Each structure stands twice: as structure tokens, then as C-alpha cells.
Amino acid sequence: MASVAVDSLIMKLTRLLNEEVTLLKEVRKKVEGVKNELSLIQAYLKDADAKADIGDTSSHAIKVWVKQLRHAAFHIEDAVDFYMIKLAPHPSQRHGVLSKFYLAIRSVVPRHRITSEIENVTSAIRKLYEDKQALGLTLTPSSSEQNVVARTRYDLRMGALFIREDELVGIDYAMNLLTNWLLHGEAKPTVISVVGGGGLGKTAIVRNLYNKLKEDFDCYAWITVSHSSKEEHLLTTIQTLYENDGKSYPVEGTRGKEVDMHTLIEKLRGYLQGKRYMIVFDDVWEINFWECMEFALPADTNISSRIIITTRDRGIAEFCRRSAPVRIHELKPLLDEDALKLFLLKTFQFDLHGCPEDLNELSERFVKRCEGVPLAIVVISGLLSTKEKTVSEWQKVYDSLRSKFSSDPHLRSFYLVLLESYHDLPYHLRLCLLYFGLFSQGLSIKCSTLICQWVAEGFVNENEMFVDQTLEEEAEDYLAELIRRSLIKVNVVSVNGKAKSCRVHDLMHDFIVRKCEELNFCQVVNKQEFRFHEWTRRIAIQNIDERAFTGNNQSSVRVRSCVGFGIEQLSESVLKSLVSSFNLLVTLGLEYLPLDHLPEAVGDLLNLKYLSLRKTKIKTIPRTIGKLQKLQTLNLRDTKVLELPVEINKLVKLRHLLSYSFGSSQHQQHLFGFSLNGGIEGLTDLQSLAMVNTRTANGDGIIREMENMINMRKLGIVELSEVNGNGVCNAIKNMPNLCSLSIKAAENCRFLALQELVDPPANLQRLYLNGPLKELPEWILKNLVKLHLIGSRLAEDPLPKLKGLPELMELHLDHFCESEEVHFKCGWFEKLKDLTLLRMNTLRTLKIEKGTLSNLEVLRLGSSPQMKDAVDIQNLEALKNLYLIDMPRQFANDVSTAIKKNTTLDISSPLLPPRRRPDHPLIIPRRGKMVKISVFQGIALAAKDMVKLYLRVDSRRVYVGSTSLLRPASLTTFANVENWFRFRFPDSEFVNHLYFFKLPMLPGIEVNFLRLCFERLMWRQPP
Predict the structure, then answer these.
(1) R_g over Cα of the chain
(2) 146-167: pLDDT as tens digits
(3) DSSP 481-538
(4) What whole-number distance in Å separates Cα of residue 621 and Cα of residue 642?
(5) Cβ 199 vs Cβ 414: under 8 Å
(6) What is the phi/psi pair of residue 274, to 5°?
(7) Which residues on neighbouring strands pair with residue 996, listed in sequence order?
(8) pLDDT of residue 772
(9) Which residues pair with 661 in a beta bridge?
């Protein structure tokens, strides 16, 4: 597929021609010419991509043609980037007559080179354009091609249409819910939408309901929409309704001819008028599908008619709300138990003895790989049912799943389901989806990281943006659309419903990796040698030993992005060699790598826009950083960098500057920022600045310079003195788009002086104040979503003033007042979901009236030694998680007996050992290896002595017991352990279950409370 490469290049050339850059006349003319040539051929690429993927008789020749075009696009991109780097002005270079003369002399060789290369490539592209006719590439697919596509889609859906009821596993809840909506819902036409990713069973469930309930309606029809036109599905609806009613088709002679839409709509309305109908529109892809159907369906207000839609796009269901009530059911993946049941049913349906015991473990691994998607389970089961039932044979299948994904006839049906979703994406969303191929399978990725990388890569189409929208906000919309289309899974959601981290389904990741290999989009290097393909544009280096880099003299001018994962050792010389190899690098992600020094050679990456050193041990940033004139993002979070060089002020395109870390002592968390000796006067494009230390010699100047930061969205300040409070207020009032504000007072600051902020930013939604306050600022906005008050030490309880924040969802109060009683009254904080109350030394009573905090899901109470009376926990109807931190024993006992069954209680105590220090070596358990751990048992209620437990990692299970014999006295499955062990044991296989043996359970506390123990366990070698 060349459309991704060509579309991306055209967008880049357009941006290049529109920007104020030094393009000499001759070069500009060549660039405009090649852009026009590519635009001519662009129209045929969709046809070429479709033919190559369908696999018709000409697919091999077309694939070669597509590959040649893609390489030509790469050649042009490389030539342009090299030209721009050669002519990049030095930061200190002035614009004068001598500078222009010097530029003209210096540009002779690069200009000759780029014009020569573009001429050669343009000739090749012109030849490819002429070859399109010989390959049968057209703007409109032929009828035979359309038939092939339609037949492929029909074949994919046929299995779902004819699935037996006994093969529908784990759908009882969905069936009961949908049945209730269909038969007992509102007495008016209602749209019921079943939404979910490909292969989740939407069609199978709805078809089963349709067959059962259709006779309860006056008339009914099943319409497979897919990508058909409005006229076609209107005609099909009319024909199906009449045929089901035993009548002749009322619009004879219209098929295949021009049809009057108005006539069709009138005909359908007339037929349905006064009838109770059920019409299913299966596999809807286009939002405009509803634009004609909403007029064709009569709105009889007293008839319980039902329109059912199955779709992968939630936005389609939402679109129907404009003219009808809508009920949406998002289909979820199967639970582990149901997934395994379906797997065994399909794999061993003809085996009398069922699954052999030695295949139980591999069965669980296959099921885990499918992540609860029924179609994935069915196709893999179909493949395994044809194989010998031996461990060796099944292991071969498991190891080769990715390579067989698109070719094996058993697996290809699921591959085509994913391919449908991929082809439905516009090209910029394809780029964003393919970017997940850079990350390890199953890895949860921070959404903010993705967004900054997409912007740096140039994926955002600026022509489609709103005038007042930033590139990052447009990228957020891209991410939201991929989530809406069920292509990306959200892992962590913030309190206001925004995605914080995400990932793709394991088999979707396999699909993406295959596509990345075809497109040379990216390459994952994870073997014991460092070799990459000639045309690779992006590289992910995963789990490679440093020795793999030794002696490697490769230089890849084509690589634009490099990210590293799981590299245990990386010396300065190796990193310098690596950086020097990628001259045109745009993004460089070295997060979590064992780095303590950044080489000065990083300053030679003049194309670099994104640099992340998060979670490394780097202490200083070289002064050569000032040469990176295109840098947009510099992420130094959780590093040891406390001071940035003055050259930072030269990075005039910097949009995000993040550098802060956290430390803890005696159960208190400390926030450390960074100092800027050179100021920030030149950084007027900054959108994120966190956390800048203003307790420096030029702190006053930095605060004054902030007044020019009109683009600021996120601002964090630490070590703010009392005298600088008014200056900060003056700066903030000039930031109309500020969304997040964090201020931490200096240690000797008497109070944060923030009362002078008369006109605060209207968009401010997140406010974090850490330091003493005389009184609560009057300007606190009513649209705040998050509010943290830490160390405020107010004389009076501020809750009566805060109760007027109608949008507040998260409230964190830490040592915020000196009251003996805190009272939450009925009607306060109706949207609050997350509440934290910590370090209230004088607090004795916490009252929660019945009916208040009706949406509260998470409550944290901690370090309040005077608290005796039990909280009215039973009044919190929606509570899901309760955390008690260093609370009195009697209080914890009373609360543990009062919580509801669906509430998880976590208790922590100062008796627990501290978290593992960064410099303490972590022992990675291997298969079958015994590791002794020391951990406290019983936590706050029963922790007296340290007990020794044994932990054994055996394949995908972890066993913990009080003796080495591990004889099971009781068995408990510990949910949510997978993510934690995946993080803690990166080199071991993922853990499915955690089994506890002979561990005393505390009254009223669920087993989940033991999670905290294992988060703080201390590792050491067994004797």
C-alpha cells in the first residue's frame, strides 16, 4: 500500500511550500512539480491498495507497482529533508546581506543535488503513472471488483448469520438486556445500537434475537448495509419487508437504474405507517446512512417500533439521537471463563475425551492471546482442530500465529475483519494506528506521549483543523475517533472520562506489525543483532543486549523515529554511535533506559522534534541542545535533571517542556522541579511548562516572561515565594487557554498570595495548590473538574465554599484545615467521583449524610490519628474502592465490617516495608525458579511479625505459600495481577493467576487487599 507514504509526502510538501523556509526558486519549482505528479497518481492508489489486499490475479504486479511508488516517495522525502538540514541557519545567525550571500554560496551543492534527485524520481513517477492503465487501475472499481469485495464481506458475515444457539457463549447479559429493550421499552420508535470491535459477535447476537422475536412485530426486515449506497439499502429494505409479508415487490424495474429517493422514502413510510416494525441494519459503517433512513421511518409516537443497528463506530449510534431515542449497548470481550469454554467447545467438539491435561496451559495461552474476542477464538480453534493434539505441535502454531495471520485460510477471516476496519480509515488515521507497531505487544501507552509523537511526525492534517484548535487538540480528536471505531482499547480513564493510557488488542497488534512490514513503516529489532531494512522509516529497539550494537557500522539516513525498550545496558559510546547513525531523526524516545548521560551528538539531529528521556538517570543536558531549532517536546520527567542550560531559550518552537520528579520520606511526597538560568523569553510557543523552579536568582524575571505565554495550556510552578504571588497572578490572566495550573509554595513561604487573580482563565479545569493559604481564593472557578489542596492549613473547613463547584469530579484534601469535624451534606458535590482526605491531625468525626456523594466511586482516608467514629460508608451507594492509609486499628475494624460486598477495601500501614529502592537490584523470577521474599502478613489489623513466604513462577502462574511444599489448603484467584507482574517481571512470561496457600483471611476484607503487600515486597536471593 503506497497511499500512506504518498499521502503523507503530499501533506509534507504542501506544508513545506506554505512555510516561511528558505526554498530557492529552482528548488521550489521542482518541489511543486513533484507534488503535482504525486497528486495525479494519488487518485488511483485506493484502487491499487484494494486490489493488492483482495488478492486477485493482477495483485502481484500491482504490489510491485505500489512498492516502487512507495520507494519513490521515500526518495523525495529524504532529498527534501537533507536539503533543509544543509541549509538550516545557525541559531545565532543574523539576517543580513552577508548572511544571504553566504547562504547562496553554501546552497550550490545541496541545490544541485536535490534538483537532480527530484528530476530522476519525477521521471520514475511519471512512468508509474503511465503504467497504471496496463495494470487496470481505475478511479472507479469495475463491477467484477465490486462483486469480489461484496462476496468477501458476505462470506465474513455468513458464519455469524448461521451460528447455532449452543455456540453463543457468555452472552446472557447482552441477550437479556436487548430483549428487554426490544419488548418492554418505550412506546415509540427507538434505535437500539449494538457497538463493538470486529469479531465480538454483534451480528450473531442480534441475528439470534431477530429470529426469536420477529414474530412479535407486525413486520420485520434484516438488511446488511456494509458500504452500500443510501438508495441500495432503501430498496433492499422495501423489498425485504414486502417479501416477508408475502407481497410482490412494489418498485419493479428500478433496480440498477436511477432511483428517485423521494419516491423510495414515500413508499417505505407508507408501508410502515401504523405498523409495529423491527428492522435490523447490520454492519453500518457510514454516519450518513441515517440521513435518509430517518425520513423513511414514520415517527408514530404510540407504537413500540424498533430499529436495530450493529456497528463498530459508536459515533454512528450517537448520530441517530438527532431524530430518535437511542439505546446503546457496547459489547465487551468474553470473560476468561467464557472464553476458555468457547475455545474448548470449538477445538474439541469432535473429540470424545476433550482437552488433554498437558494442553491445558497452552489452551489458556491461546485464549489469553485472543483477549475475549469470539471470532479470534473460533478461527484459532478451527486451526488447532486440524492439528495433532500434542504440546510440540500446538507450540509451533502459537509461535507462528503472526506469520500465518494473513495467509492461513483458518486465520484469514479474522485478518479480513481487521482489514475492513483499516481500509475504512482516512489516511491520517491509518498513520496513527500503524504507529502502535512501534510499541511492544500488550504495552499500555500514555495518551499524552502518543499525541506529542503524532504531532512531531506530522500526522495531523492542519487543513482540517478548526481555527482556534491546536495540533495537540486535533491529535486528541484522532485518538478519540480510533477509540470510537473500536480499534484502540482504553486502559486507564481519568475522572472526567478522558483516556489516559491505551493499547491495541494483541491480534490487532499482529495485524499492525504485518502492515508495518509491508509498508516499511517501522521495524522492531528484538534479536541479538542490530540490523534494519534499507527502507525502514521507524525503529523500535526491544530487549537487545548492548553487545548487539558493538561493531555495527550501519548508517540509516531513512530512519525518522527511534524508540527503545528493555535495553539493560547502554553506554555513552554506543548511544553516541546510535544517534549519529540517524541523521534525519524526528522522534527519539529513550524512556526507562539505563542512561546517565546524553551525548553532545544529540545536537546534530537538526530534524528532531520530540525527545523523551523520562525515567532515566540523566543528570545534565548538553548545551548542544540549543541547536535543535525544530524541537517541540522535551520530556525529562522522573530524571535527575534539576537545571537546564541557557541554550534552552533558543528552542523557539518548543511546545512542551516537562521536567519534574517525586521523592518521598516519612509517608510524605516531595515534588522537585527544574531551574532555568537563561529564562524563557524566547519560548512563546510553549503550551506545557512543568515544573519550573522560581526560587532562583532570575525567578522574578521568569515570572515576568510568563506574561507573554498566551498559548499556555498546562503550567506548573514550584518553590513560589510569597512576594511572587502577584506576579504569577498577572501572568495567569494573560493565559486564556490555561487548562491546568499547579503551584507549590517554597518551604519558608507563609502563604500563597493568589487573591489578586481577578479574571482567571475560563478554561481552567484542573487546579493543584500545595502550600498554606490565608483563605480560599475567591476566583476558584465553577467549571473545575479537579481540585487538590495540599498543606493549606485553613482555620475553617472550606467545604461550604467548595460545595458550589457543580462540575467537580476529583477532590484531594491533604492537611487542608484544622477542624475537628468534616460534614458532607445532602446535595453537595453531586458529580464527585474521587475523594481523598489525608493528614488531618485534629479530625475526629467525618459525617456523610444519606443521599450525598451519590456518584462517589473512590474514597481515600489516611493519617488521621484522632479519628474514632466510623464513617457512614453505607451511605455511599456508588463506592467501589476504599483505601485506608495509616488509620487507627479500631476505625479500620469498624469500617471493614460496614462496607458493601461490591466495595474493595485496601489497607496499608507504616509496618509495611518501603517500596524497593531504585538502586536495589530486582531479581527476575525465571520458570521453575524459587525466590524467597520477605513480606508482612495481615497488614494493619494483624501485622506483628515478619513471615517468610515462598514464591514460584511456573509458566503463567505464581504460587505463594507459607511452606515450600505449597500444598493447597485454599485456592483464591487474584484478579488484576497480570498488569502488575507484567510491569515487575518484564523478562518472564505474563502471569495469569496468583494462588495463595494457608494465608489467614481477615474478617470483612476481600483477598484484593493483599495487592498492597506484593507492591512493596523486598526481593532477595534464596538461601
Answers:
(1) 31
(2) 444 444 555 556 666 667 776 7
(3) HHHHTTSSEEEEE-TTS-EEEEE--HHHHHHHHHHHHHHT--EEE-SSS----TT--E
(4) 10
(5) yes
(6) 80, 0
(7) 960
(8) 93
(9) 672
C-alpha cell at 715: 503550567
Q: Is the pLDDT of residue 993 over 60?
A: no
Q: Nearest-CA neighbor of 649 among 695, 681, 603, 687?
A: 681
Domains of the chain: 3-139 (no CATH), 171-330 (3.40.50.300), 336-399 (no CATH), 424-512 (1.10.10.10), 522-657 (3.80.10.10), 930-1019 (no CATH)
Name the strand (E) or helix (H) holding 221. strand 219-226
Whether 565 has a pLDDT exceeding 60, the answer reads: yes
List C-alpha distances in Å: 910 to 671, 812, 1013. 21, 21, 12
Q: Which residue has the higher pLDDT, 947 or 15?
A: 15
**Which whole number is the average pLDDT over 935-955?**
32
With CA atoms as reference, report the closest residue to 317 among 341, 290, 338, 339.
290
The 10s digit of each residue's pLDDT in 614-633 is 999 999 999 999 999 999 99
What string of DSSP letters covers 751-782?
Answer: ----TT--S--TT--EEEEES--SS--TT--T
Residue 589, SS3?
strand
Backbone angles phi, psi at 173, to 5 degrees: -65, -45
What is the pLDDT confidence band of residue 827, given thresholds at 50, 70 and 90?
A: confident
H or E segment to which residue 277 belongs: strand 277-284
**CA-to-CA distance for 459 and 360, rounded, in angstroms?**
44
* Torsion angle (degrees, nearest 10) of CA 255, 258, 261, 267: -40
Q: Residues 867-871: what's their mean pLDDT?
A: 73
Average pLDDT, the chain: 78
Q: In which region does residue 981 sit, left (phi positive, over 0), alpha (psi from -120 to 50) or beta (all else)?
A: alpha
Q: Please check whether residue 809 is in contact with residue 830, taking contact to mean a CB–CB distance below 8 angstroms.
A: no
Phi, psi for residue 983 in degrees, rounded to 5 = -75, -45
Question: What pLDDT band is residue 53 in, cutting at 50, 70 and 90?
Answer: low
Rounded-to-10 torsion of CA 982, 986, 988, 990: 20
Q: Give the range among 192-196, 247-251, 789-793 with minimum mean pLDDT.
A: 247-251
Assign 3-class secondary structure to 529-555. Answer: CCCCCCCCCEEEEECCCHHHCCCCCCC
* pLDDT above 70 (res 830): yes
What is the greatest pairwise CA distance in the chain? 89
Q: Are 267 and 296 in contact (CB under 8 A)?
A: no
CA dihedral 397, 401, 403, 404 (to 10 degrees): 80
Which residues, 6 or more positions from 253, have their beta carbon under 8 angstroms from its beta carbon?
none
> Is residue 882 helix, strand or coil?
strand
DSSP secondary structure, 241-267, as one string: HHHHTT---SSTT-TTS---HHHHHHH
Which pLDDT score is estimated for 62? Answer: 77
- Between CA 258 and CA 254 the distance in angstroms is 7
Q: What is the pLDDT of residue 620?
A: 94
Contact predicate 1009/905, CB 8 Å: yes
| 860 closest CA partner among 841, 883, 889 | 883
Task: Tell me whether the omega of the peptide bond preceding residue 691 falls within 30 degrees of 0, making it cis.
Answer: yes
Burial (CB count within 10 angstroms: exposed 0-12, middle 13-18, buried 19+), residue 704: middle
Question: Which DSSP helix (H) or strand (E) runs through 947?
Answer: strand 946-954
Q: For residue 925, give the C-alpha cell.
A: 523470577
Strand extents, DSSP E, 771-920: 786-790, 810-814, 821-824, 834-838, 845-848, 858-862, 881-885, 904-908
CA distance linking residue 504 with residue 538, whole number of Å = 19
Could you tell me which residue, 6 or 437, shows the higher pLDDT?
437
pLDDT of residue 920: 37
